């Protein structure tokens, strides 16, 4: 099931892993560029045209009405609705701790004021995959930090199904998390509509949320004009384990990511050969019982691997090089071992914290850096929905005390106009 790789021969696999997201976007860009230009030129008409072509439904109105939302919430199973509310509360409780305030200070007690103003982005657009698959958890993970940050208007877009409807649980999650307006639009046309605005869809200042390769390409293409969160690649999970680990738990967790799509990567890193053998046995047993068996098998055999190491430190070193989206530490002492991890999107500790706990319920965001970008990127957070402005004040005395240094810097860089703007105040 999982190919077994000795740590000394892991370079070829790592290269395959890193290269799996280097998609040739040339042809996709051509298609997406045409869609974006059409939406910029023709607005709602273009959006409706693409919705009919790609989603198979002709819509008179693309905005979800308040009545549609109320009826959807009423139809949602009461237990599921309560689960969504619990998840909302956990996500809100976690993300509210990320809030920051504007600050000012006076260095050295002089007549100088320096500071940083923190303001929310005024309008944010969130993209939620829809159609055949629907993800109310994605609504919560994007909308909750946006509203906590103080975003005045959160605009949600999501593709409709063949009946022109949005799944009830998605609308319920949007209602609970305070989304302001919802549109039955997906794909590159939806990203273009959020970036440039149409007659119905407001132009936003930042777009967040995952999507297919066309959505990713569209986000890249509009990123010079509007902010985006990240370009998400295929899902990843890496498990660091040792001989004490439960092979059935590990197999189940590797499968939880493999079922996403055939490009997902599920990796076991351990110094225990017996654990590798037992995990492979459990993988086969569990996979045979699941609906998405074909996708799981393709994912595990293509981008799955068990890397056999010479000890825990080597396991940690390989993990830091891979920088996985999801990292589970199933060792004897995970509370010490996690302190050595430098690069990971989210870390899950112990035998009873499987990755789906983070996907749906715990509170930390499930929008995570993929494809080794955890080396320099962070999970989606309140920070993605705020912007910071520097604040500077110098009194006359403060400027006079520092004017020679500033003039010296300016003249060294050949910018005499800069130097003159200082000199002129003391003539």
Automatic annotation (TrEMBL):
Transmembrane segments: none annotated. The active site is at residues 325-326. GO terms for biological process: L-histidine biosynthetic process. CDD domains: Histidinol_dh. NAD(+) binds at residues 127, 189, 212. Keywords: Amino-acid biosynthesis, Histidine biosynthesis, Metal-binding, NAD, Oxidoreductase, Zinc. Its cofactor is Zn(2+). The keyword Transmembrane does not apply. It catalyses: L-histidinol + 2 NAD(+) + H2O = L-histidine + 2 NADH + 3 H(+). PROSITE patterns: HISOL_DEHYDROGENASE. Pathway: Amino-acid biosynthesis; L-histidine biosynthesis; L-histidine from 5-phospho-alpha-D-ribose 1-diphosphate: step 9/9. Its EC number is 1.1.1.23. InterPro entries: Ald_DH/histidinol_DH, Histidinol_DH_CS, Histidinol_DH_monofunct, Hstdl_DH. Zn(2+) binds at residues 257, 260, 359, 418. GO terms for molecular function: histidinol dehydrogenase activity; NAD binding; zinc ion binding. Substrate binds at residues 235, 257, 260, 326, 359, 413, 418. One of its GO terms (cellular component) is cytosol. Belongs to the histidinol dehydrogenase family. Catalyzes the sequential NAD-dependent oxidations of L-histidinol to L-histidinaldehyde and then to L-histidine. This is Histidinol dehydrogenase. It comes from Dethiosulfatibacter aminovorans DSM 17477. The lineage of its organism: Bacteria, Bacillati, Bacillota, Tissierellia, Dethiosulfatibacter.
């Amino acid at each position: 099931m999982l190919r077994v790789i000795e740590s000394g021969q892991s370079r070829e696999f790592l290269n395959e892993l890193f290269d799996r997201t280097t998609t040739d976007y040339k042809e996709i860009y051509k298609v997406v560029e045409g869609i974006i230009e059409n939406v910029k030129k023709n607005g709602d008409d273009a959006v409706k045209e693409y919705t009919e072509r790609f989603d198979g439904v002709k819509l008179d109105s693309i905005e979800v009405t308040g009545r549609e939302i109320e009826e959807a919430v009423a139809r949602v199973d009461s237990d599921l609705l309560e689960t969504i509310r619990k998840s909302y509360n956990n996500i809100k409780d976690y993300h509210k701790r990320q809030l920051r305030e504007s600050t000012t200070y006076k260095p050295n007690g002089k007549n100088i004021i320096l500071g940083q103003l923190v303001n929310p982005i005024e309008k944010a657009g969130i993209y939620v995959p829809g159609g055949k698959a629907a993800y109310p958890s994605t609504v919560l993970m994007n909308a909750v930090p946006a509203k906590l940050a103080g975003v005045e208007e959160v605009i949600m877009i999501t593709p409709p199904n063949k009946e022109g409807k949005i799944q009830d649980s998605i609308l319920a999650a949007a209602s609970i998390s305070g989304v302001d307006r919802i549109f039955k639009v997906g794909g590159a046309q939806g990203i273009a509509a959020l970036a440039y605005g149409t007659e119905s869809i407001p132009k936003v200042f930042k777009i967040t949320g995952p999507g297919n390769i066309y959505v990713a390409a569209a986000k890249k293409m509009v990123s010079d004009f509007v902010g985006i969160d990240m370009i998400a690649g295929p899902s990843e999970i890496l498990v660091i384990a040792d001989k004490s680990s439960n092979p059935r738990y590990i197999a189940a967790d590797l499968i939880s990511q493999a079922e996403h799509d055939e490009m997902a990567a599920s990796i076991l890193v351990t110094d225990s050969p017996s654990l590798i053998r037992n995990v492979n046995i459990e993988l086969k047993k569990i996979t045979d019982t699941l609906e998405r068996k074909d996708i799981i098998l393709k994912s595990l055999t293509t981008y799955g691997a068990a890397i056999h190491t010479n000890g825990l430190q080597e396991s940690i070193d390989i993990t830091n090089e891979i920088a996985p989206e999801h990292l589970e530490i199933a060792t004897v002492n995970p509370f010490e071992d996690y302190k050595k991890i430098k690069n990971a999107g989210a870390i899950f500790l112990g035998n009873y914290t499987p990755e789906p706990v983070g996907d749906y319920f715990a509170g930390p965001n499930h929008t995570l850096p993929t494809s080794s970008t955890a080396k320099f990127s962070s999970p989606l957070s309140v920070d993605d929905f705020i912007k910071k402005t520097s604040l500077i004040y110098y009194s006359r005395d403060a400027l006079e005390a520092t004017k020679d240094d500033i003039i010296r810097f300016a003249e060294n860089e050949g910018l005499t106009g800069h130097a003159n703007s200082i000199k002129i105040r003391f003539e």
